[in-house]
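Meet my pick.
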Amino acid sequence: MKDQFRIIILGENQIRLLSRILIIFNRKNIKINYINFSNYENETIDNFKYIIDLECFEEQLMKITKLIEKLIGIINVYFSKKITKPSRENSWKKINFPLATF
């Protein structure tokens, strides 16, 4: 069964780095649920941070992270498995209160 993962990629300020990352996902037929792109300021270098939520198998994720790490301009690649929260209907606990009698 496919799991949901979040990948955080730190990269240098290079042209078309995001497109090269997305080409890797497209070639592997990975479903991307969410993409966020932001400026990550360091003391010495101006970097970018990409946050990508996706659905895939864990073996596919390992292969993809190795491919992304090989790209020129990538500093670090982090990933974690997203924990799905139970739906609101299932989160209510049944509590038996005794009837109040006065």
The first strand starts at residue 3 and ends at 12.
